[in-house]
């Protein structure tokens, strides 16, 4: 049975539903970060991929939350470390308008698969073709609905080797899934991850999903058709239950995670009742 992935609502002119449109919003956030003098990364393709839709979505936000910029840089560094350590297979699940294939300095021999809905990847490839963008690794865009049971077969048919270590990035994804869907995805990824593989995920705490402080933001997400449904207070326990170990959990604002940009205090995880974001890395 397919897991309960988020449903689709009305689509835009490119055939993108509200969830897929979040990819254009995150591209707009990367474009805005690129324009800062103190930027954490540079993404010259982000403005193109955001389009007017992405810019409008970003401008509707009530404040400039640095989380997306911090998250992007943190996973940039994580992926560079994984490939420095010898991993040559990278899979970005629900890649959206991600441009790491084009902007990171990959070592020779890296293959990078981008998994996402076919309509979104077609739009992305059409936009990239307009500027003749060239990836800096072997990039394989793979149109697949993650609700289907066959995406693992699509991946292996496209050259992925389950017997070799790989790095899997699930960025900005788990929060949109119901708990069974999130657990199922972790199992399916684990089934393709050889020993020595890496996993990177981000997710909110359960407290963030029920806090009075975050309720207005979560209500806006619900109204937009992109509700957050999944969070976890102990990411270590979540990933270890699915076969991942050496789990590292960092909150934005901690050392190595945008300390200079995070405007709020970072309270110890032992303090109850605090909404939190987690950046998480683990090893198979």
Q: What do you see in this structure?
A:
With 284 residues, the chain is α/β, with parallel strands linked by helices. It has one domain (66-263, 273-283): Vaccinia Virus protein VP39 (Rossmann fold, 3-Layer(aba) Sandwich). The protein has 10 helices and 7 strands. The protein has a 7-stranded mixed sheet with strand order 3-2-1-4-5-7-6. Helix 1 (18-34) packs across helix 2. It is globular and about 45 Å long. The relative contact order is 0.14. The model is unreliable at 1-13 (pLDDT under 50).
End-to-end span in angstroms? 26 Å
CATH class: Alpha Beta
Annotated CATH homologous superfamily: Vaccinia Virus protein VP39
Q: Provide the CATH architecture.
A: 3-Layer(aba) Sandwich
The helix/strand class is alpha/beta
Strand composition percent: 5-15%
Series of H and E elements: HHHEHEHEHEHEHHHEE
Name the shape in a single word: globular
Number of E-type strands:
7
Task: Write down the domain tally.
Answer: 1
Largest sheet entry: 7 strands, mixed
**Overall pLDDT confidence:** 93
Integer-rounded radius of gyration: 18 Å
Low-confidence stretches: 1-13
Number of H/I helices = 10
Spatial strand sequence of the major β-sheet: 3-2-1-4-5-7-6
Q: Can you tell me the CATH topology?
A: Rossmann fold
Helix content: 25-40%
Summary of the model, kept short:
With 284 residues, this protein is an alpha/beta fold. It has helices spanning 18-34, 46-59, 67-84, 100-103, 118-130, 151-157, 179-190, 206-210, 215-223, 235-240; strands at 89-93, 111-116, 138-143, 167-170, 198-204, 245-250, 277-283.
